[in-house]
Amino acid sequence: MVNTMKAAVFEAIKVIKVKDVPIPEICDDEVLVQVKNTGICGTDWSIYNGWYSAEKLPMIPGHEFSGVIAKVGKNVNRVKEGDRVTADINMSCGHCYYCMRGDQLLCNDFTQLGIHTDGTFAEYVRAKASLVHVLPDNLSFEEGAFIEPLSCCIHAAKAMNARLGGSVAIVGCGLGVLHARMAVLRACAPVIIVGDNTKRLNIAKEMGADYTIDIREVSDPVEEVKKLTGGRGVDYAIEAVGTTKTYEQAFAMLRKGGVLSAFGITGEMDTMQIRPFEFVLGEKKVTGSCAGIGDDWPDAITLLAAGRIDPKPLFSMKVPLEDLEWALHELRKDPNLFKIFVSSEISKREIL
Ligand SMILES: [Zn+2]
Ligand SMILES: [Zn+2]
User: How far is ligand 2, taken at its centre, from the CA of residue 91, in Å?
Assistant: First the structure.
């Protein structure tokens, strides 16, 4: 095997170079995965712009991936060469205060593959064997690369823990579309999704959402949600945009005793206005969720493999590694694009 591979290296802020770099060396409890697809995530855009992980540059991002095991470390026996896989990207120390309590996502020494360590915008990546998940035969490599974002939604849904028959409003129609689908699967009603993109709102509707609210047509989405819930507001509101304004709107959509699921990532120093009164006399609650970890991964795989969630309407195109930078910009410009996959195995863009 040659010992170099092609990778998209983020050399500095807004500088990506596709070049040959050494293939990662694996330890005894690790595997080397030949990457098939990597989905582009908003986090990659943040790393590109230096808003996140800037101190880690130069690095190879990419974390929503699927691939085939090319090599296993000496101590690895639960997976083998040739297995089609993805991997949980979350790495925790296992012994700090939070890890000991089972809250690995809050680990003091928390890192994520492709966000804090070299990732999958490359031909190969190394991963801990214990974090690898084998893909069922009926999942494509595109669906395999979609397990990570779905696991994040599942983690948030578990934290929010919606009851059957509960009303849900989702603000945002990116991953908000998956939140809507999951609320439908949980037998919530009505499921209302608020967004600014006709195509995505229609996909949410096809996935079972009861109402769509297009903010380009409706001046006050909070009023609209109240109208649809007998003037009360919803039992659950999921913020899946990541701005102060949409957080304030989602919170205002809640009925007394309602639960806000905080999913969209805002700027680190952004603040929102909440009257403490809403918590005391309104008994409103907030659940936060930063990633999918542990059993969220097999749960995501099960839901995809069983066809409960069909993400294919959200897949837009696949591009070669050389087009990653173009695709990062295109995703900002063209609201009809949703998930773009990057692959080192193709040389021309493919529409999915
Ligand atoms: Zn992601
Ligand atoms: Zn820890």
Answer: 9
Q: Is 1 helix (H, G, I), strand (E, B) or coil?
A: coil
Q: How far is the CA of 246 from the centre of ligand 2 (A)?
A: 32
CA of 149 to the centre of ligand 1 (A): 6
**Predicted local distance difference test score (pLDDT) of residue 341:** 98
Q: Could you tell me the distance, in angstroms and rounded to a whole number, from the CA of residue 92 to the centre of ligand 2? A: 5
Q: What proportions of the chain, in percent to the nearest 5, are helix, strand and coil?
A: 30, 30, 40
Mean pLDDT to the nearest integer, 329-342? 95
The pTM assigned to this predicted structure is 0.95
Taking the CB of residue 230, how many other CB atoms lie within 10 A of it?
9
| CA atoms of 233 and 254, how far apart (whole Å) | 5
CA distance 304 to 136: 10
Work out whether strand 254-262 and strand 234-239 pair parallel, antiparallel, or are unpaired. Answer: parallel
Would you state the pLDDT for residue 54?
Answer: 86
Ligand number, closest to the Cα atom of 39: 1
Q: Report the percent of the chain where pLDDT is more than 70.
A: 100
Query: Do the Cβ atoms of 179 and 206 come closer than 8 Å?
Result: no
Calculate how far, in angstroms, residue 247's C-alpha sits from the geometric centre of ligand 1.
20
Q: Which ligand is nearest to the CA of 42?
A: 1
Q: Residue 103: nearest ligand to its CA?
A: 2
Going from the Cα of 64 to the center of ligand 1, the distance in angstroms, rounded, reads 6
CA–centroid distance, 145 to ligand 1, in Å, is 10
Which ligand has the nearest atom to the CA of 104? 2
Q: What's the pLDDT tens digit per position in 278-304?
A: 999 999 999 999 899 999 999 999 999
What distance in angstroms lies between residue 3's CA and the mean position of ligand 1's atoms? 28
- How confident is the model at residue 85, as a pLDDT? 98
Residue 6 pairs with which residues in a beta bridge?
20
pLDDT band, residue 105 (cuts 50/70/90): very high
Q: How confident is the model at residue 2 (pLDDT cuts 50, 70, 90)?
A: confident
- Token pair 């008994």: residue: 283
- pLDDT-based confidence at residue 268 (cuts at 50, 70, 90): confident
